[in-house]
Amino acid sequence: MKVLILAGGYGxxxxxxxxxxxxxxxxxxxxxxxxxxMKHYSHYGFNEFVILGGYKQYVIKEYFNxxxxxxxxxxxxxxxxxxxxxxxxxxxxxxxxxxxxxSTMTGGRIKRAKPYVGNxxxxxxxxxxxxxxxxxKLLSFHQKCGRAITITSVSISQTKGILExxxxxxxxxxxxxxxxxxxxxxxxxxxxxPEVFDYISGDNTVFEKNPMxxxxxxxxxxxxxxxxFWQCMDTKRDKDSLEDLWESGNAxxxxxxx
Length: 258
Prior knowledge:
Blueprint: E1 2-7, H1 15-18, E2 27-28, E3 31-32, H2 33-43, E4 48-53, H3 57-65, H4 67-71, E5 73-77, E6 82-86, E7 94-99, H5 106-112, H6 114-117, E8 122-126, E9 129-131, H7 135-145, E10 149-156, E11 162-165, E12 171-175, E13 183-186, E14 190-192, H8 210-217, E15 221-225, E16 230-232, H9 236-248
Parallel strand pairs: 1-4, 1-8, 4-7, 10-15
Antiparallel strand pairs: 2-3, 5-6, 8-14, 9-16, 10-13, 10-14, 11-12
């Protein structure tokens, strides 16, 4: 089963780094966040990836083209015009990087991957969020539900204290935030049947709008609630938080062994 990764946006909320590279190539622990996502899927046996690039997509292509240069010791024999790679560190991956257009919306990017997916189910996620979601359990849930799409839902906690107020405006309670106070959001890590492509009209389609609304209206969508770790790298503060977790040696999303 192929894994589609949305990686074409501008990443304007983390422009400190995205002005130089696409957001999924921003590094956590000296490795692009998309690498962390791919390592997680690979841990569960999913090794064929279709990366839906757009903004600065050539950076992604160059990274995978030069993967050995990034991750192995290299000898450059200038006299013989040879490059010798020592102790190759290879992943069991097949990676296809698509240029889905600079301004194409999320739905349009997904639609452009149809020729590479064919008439098969596929995984789909965003290139800027990491999680310890159990991909095998997610897939099993999707197959059991029999819907066209299953989305991983996650809770995001409130960032302020909670006020409980009655209908007359009297303050009944004040307490600190708790995870149950948060809203459920789309955390990515989706499983899709090929009929999902039929809900996308073209490049200007935002997947999270009409396609998702219509899938829900047609009772073809399910949600797999993940209670573990999930974090999106929207801002520099998010990046720093993920970096701190990685450097601590206790990054919850690191499900693989070196």
